[in-house]
């Protein structure tokens, strides 16, 4: 009888923990939560902006976020246009390959190469090469190790040149801002996601 009571108590506690995980709301997303931002004023109208994102962020997305940060910096400083004087991007990320079972990873398994390759894209992907006689249960997954980093040196102004080399900060803010949790005027848009059903 005592064993049955203990088993029931453990089962009830597990169910309670699972339900609490299901009801816990996820952290709200915002522009500031996309990564780490840095901003330096180098001259009267020249700024250096930098964005560092998670390893699973693509280089194209990181460039858009850095460009949006440059537009926000321009508007916050009281300007309308900015020109990119210099751009710096991080080198391609190192990657690691994870196998469900290293003994079924074939010649590319961690047993042969340590599960590491020094080149890659900026998102995890499934390696569909030879692996466990092509058994889908033994497909490998590739993860990036290094964060993606983009920096811009910009020169701000209130007039556009005849060559049209400047970016319109207002246009960038209105087009890219909603995509990355900013309003057209640069104020934050905090998005609260629906509760996650998984603990």
Describe the structure.
This protein has two domains: 92 residues, Gyrase A, domain 2, CATH 3.30.1360; 50 residues, no CATH class. It is α+β, with helices and mostly antiparallel strands. Helices cover 26% and strands 25% of the residues. α2 crosses α4. A hairpin with a 4-residue loop joins β1 and β2. The longest helix is centred in the N-terminal third of the chain and has 22 residues. About 18% of the residues have low confidence.
Give the strand tally. 9
**Beta-strand content:** 15-25%
Strand order of the largest sheet: 1-2-8-3-9
Radius of gyration: 24 Å
> What structural class results from the helix and strand content?
alpha+beta
Summarize the structure.
The chain is 26% helix and 25% strand.
What structural keywords apply?
single chain, 199 residues, alpha+beta, Gyrase A, domain 2, four-stranded antiparallel β-sheet, 25% strand
């Amino acid at each position: 009888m005592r064993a049955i009571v203990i088993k029931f108590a453990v089962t009830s506690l597990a169910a309670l923990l699972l339900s609490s995980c299901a009801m816990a709301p996820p952290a709200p997303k915002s522009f500031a939560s996309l990564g780490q931002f840095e901003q330096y004023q180098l001259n009267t109208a020249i700024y250096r902006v930098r964005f560092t994102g998670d390893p699973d962020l693509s280089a194209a997305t990181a460039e858009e976020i850095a460009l949006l940060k440059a537009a926000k910096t321009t508007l916050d400083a009281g300007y309308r246009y900015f020109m990119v004087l210099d751009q710096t991007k991080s080198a391609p990320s190192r990657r690691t390959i994870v196998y469900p079972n290293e003994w079924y990873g074939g010649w590319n398994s961690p047993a042969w190469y340590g599960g590491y390759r020094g080149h890659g894209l900026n998102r995890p992907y499934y390696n569909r090469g030879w692996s466990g006689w092509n058994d889908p249960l033994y497909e490998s997954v590739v993860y990036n190790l290094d964060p993606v980093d983009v920096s811009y040196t910009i020169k701000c102004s209130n007039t556009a040149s005849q060559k049209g080399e400047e970016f319109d900060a207002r246009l960038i803010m209105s087009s890219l801002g909603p995509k990355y949790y900013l309003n057209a005027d640069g104020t934050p848009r905090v998005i609260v996601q629906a509760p996650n059903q998984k603990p």
